[in-house]
Amino acid sequence: MPLNDDILPLATFRLLGSEPRVSSAARSAVESAERRLGFRLPPAVREWYCNEEAIDILARYSHQDPPIPLKEFAVTEWQSLRLLPFKYENQGVCTWSISLDGSDDPPVYVDVDSDGKQWNVQAPTFSAYVYACVWDYALVMDKSALVQAQNEPLSEEAVGELRRLFREQPATFGWPGSTQHRFAGRDQAILIWAGGSQADWFVGAGDASSLESALRAVWNLDAVGQSLYDCSDIGKAVLEKIRVGE
Description:
Elements: H1 8-16, H2 24-37, H3 43-49, H4 54-60, E1 76-78, E2 81-88, E3 94-99, E4 108-112, E5 120-123, H5 126-141, E6 145-151, H6 156-165, E7 167-173, E8 179-185, E9 188-194, E10 199-205, H7 208-218, E11 229-230, H8 233-244
Antiparallel strand pairs: 1-2, 2-3, 3-4, 4-5, 6-10, 6-11, 7-8, 8-9, 9-10
Helix pairs in contact: 1-5, 7-8
């Protein structure tokens, strides 16, 4: 079952293998930004940025996408929304913003290469967005046992089977693809960027045995096994082992 949003902040730090550490310097930076902006940040956002490693975590668990410093926070408006940008994509393709909708843990919107003309919901809450970023890199992208694929569009049948085989994690939306699906197993994690014309699969694991087990489980889903390729030495060895036995 997907994680409840109420436990996501602590779940994020469990993924990191650490505990949140509030620092006086981080709190001072938050308060300074709030005075300049003229309002108090939403509680979940405020709590995050009072952690001494908040900015570093946003930078580290991404594709080198730079967070916006608190001292540069500035409100932008789109349609009826007031948005607070907090991170850019490393080549300027995307901007991520917090919706200032009055909620304690507000949604995150993403603008994909529209120069502020079109924003779409990326995550239902800020806590869900941060959790997803850390999950993607801690459990998938940074693993030494990793394979990936560019495959046909993700079918409902494949999603249903993934839900049966693995624990579904919080999904996000908007970019890359239209939906980012996440599934976890025992020392295994699957991230899928699902779009209308293509699904990008990433399968990460802690070791060769766990990766092999995950790949054998998903191999025939949308025939993804035929599209998988290695992006690690362990991944290469596991793929070769499975294909020799076909």
